[in-house]
Amino acid sequence: MGGKSAEDGLDENGHYTLVLVRHGESQWNKENRFTGWVDVPLAETGIDEAKRASNSLKSEGFSFDVMFTSLLQRAIKTGLLILEDLGLLWIPVDKDWRLNERHYGALQGLNKKETVEKHGSEQVNLWRRSYDTPPPPMSPDSPYWAGNQPQHKSLKDLPSTECLKDTVARVLPWWKEVCAPAIKSGRKVLVAAHGNSLRALVKYLDGLSDEEICSLNIPTAIPLVYKLDKNLKPVRAEGAYAPLSGRYLGDPEMVRNAIEGVANQTGKK
Amino acid sequence: MGKIHTLVLIRHGESQWNIENRFTGWVDVPLAPSGVAESHRAAQSIKEEGLEFDLVYTSTLKRAIKTAWNILEDLDIMHTPVHHDWRLNERMYGALQGLDKTETVEKHGMDQVLIWRRSYATPPPPMPADHEFHPRKEKKYDFLSDAELPVTESLACVVKRFMPLWNDTLMPIIKSGKKLLISAHGNTLRALVKHLDNIPEDVIANLNIPTSVPLVYHLEETDDGDLKPVKIEGAFAPMSGKYLGDQEAIKAAIAGVANQAGKK
């Protein structure tokens, strides 16, 4: 499993290991507000969730050579808490905007319930769960305009909104340019990111359809372990959680509840 | 006058082994809770001074890395790129690593221990290959050949392995206009300020850089491509740089470090 592995990063079955983790509860999750690219911190509960994630990884002897994360602190901090707990604060950490959460356009900052009251739940559902309908674009004079954020202001082609399709379009180049080469060079990779950037990634890895990915819930702060063959195609894990080839670490009951819990929380994200 | 760049240096705060009074060097001990608190205090000084960073360089030791992360978090800039380089590590303390300082003095005598600790070029005894804390046991140093991996170091050795990082990597970064924060250790910062301010060997070996007090340098680009410090108002002699924070408290802290013969 984890523990000592070959310099080429392959496990005893000749497979690469890739671990994905979605950050835990943020301050705005608690306040029930659409977040997107706004750089809100983790809530205390989100910090606890990161500890739970690192415990699962520790108990199975996981180690990493590099961590990839977004430019948003809720994911960065989740990743750092895991690395700290595993004694890996020294490994390279590469932060990339292409792992950011989906940009939520003009909805960023708004309370979710109020938005439903204003626009109707059907419209809001479309913005939240369709594949290619983005929320209304954010205007440049919004307090949340990405061009005013220190981490985003020098990016070319700043989005003013995104649908999941747009998120996929910028995650895939990141996979090809950054992550895939790192894995192939034998490095064990941890990706600490967000619900939609991870959806984009697993959609690609597992060849999921647009419909399948829109209804897929990735639970927060539960490490999702992928095994990849030499061509970086997923090898179905024992205990894989369909439709994914990867398996979640942790108590199966807890995992099942977490996944179904996200589906049922229509008031939350 | 050439272009002026700001460089911020910080030495990590109290570690678990500072409290236990043990020689540390390359052993990767965590910050003590007091050291964590010190890092937040440092962040506050930096914030009040209005300093910004584009990039952080730190060592591969968690006590310096964590100090850097706490500062970034408090400044709300966790997205800032952070690079870890072994050449910013604390001086490697050889066979003394892990030993209690008082016991070491009892065993070898105060004079000998003082030479190991405060001379410029006399390293402690080398660490044997089977030592509990041998860096070969750590994956993070796999990429260093046996010739490159130190088994003990004097301050002179630290200067020797640090300067290529400064010349080849850090100087170009600063000259490119990037605002750099270096979070490191007592002896690597000694190596740096020795170079910047041309401090003699016997003086630098006894220069106390207080923990977790941001040290700000203004560096001017010279015609020949070098970076020379410009003396800042409030500079703390013999350095051109100034410490951020309560100056009286800092003076007392420095005097305190000098007097704590039992601590580092």
Helical content of chain B (DSSP H or I, runs of 4+): 25-40%
Would you report the number of β strands of chain A?
7
Please tally the helical runs of chain B, counting DSSP H or I stretches of 4 or more residues. Answer: 9
CATH class of chain B, named Alpha Beta
N-end to C-end Cα span of chain B:
40 Å
Shape of chain A: globular
Relative helix content of chain A: 25-40%
* Structural class assignment of chain A: alpha/beta
Largest sheet of chain A: 7 strands, mixed
**And the CATH topology of chain B?**
Rossmann fold
Please give the radius of gyration of chain B in angstroms: 18 Å
Oligomerization category of the chains in this entry: heterodimer
Indicate the CATH topology of chain A: Rossmann fold
User: What is the CA–CA distance across the termini of chain A?
Assistant: 33 Å
Instruction: Return the domain count of chain A.
Output: 1
- Write down the secondary-structure element order of chain B: EHHEHEHHHEHHEEEH
What is the residue-averaged pLDDT of chain A?
93
Order of helices and strands of chain A: EHHEHEHHHEHHEEEH
Give the largest chain-chain interface (CB within 8 Å).
Answer: A-B, 18 and 18 residues
Specify the number of helices of chain A. Answer: 9
Active site (chain A): 23, 101
Protein name (chain A): Phosphoglycerate mutase
GO biological process, one term (chain A): glycolytic process
Keywords (chain A): Glycolysis, Isomerase
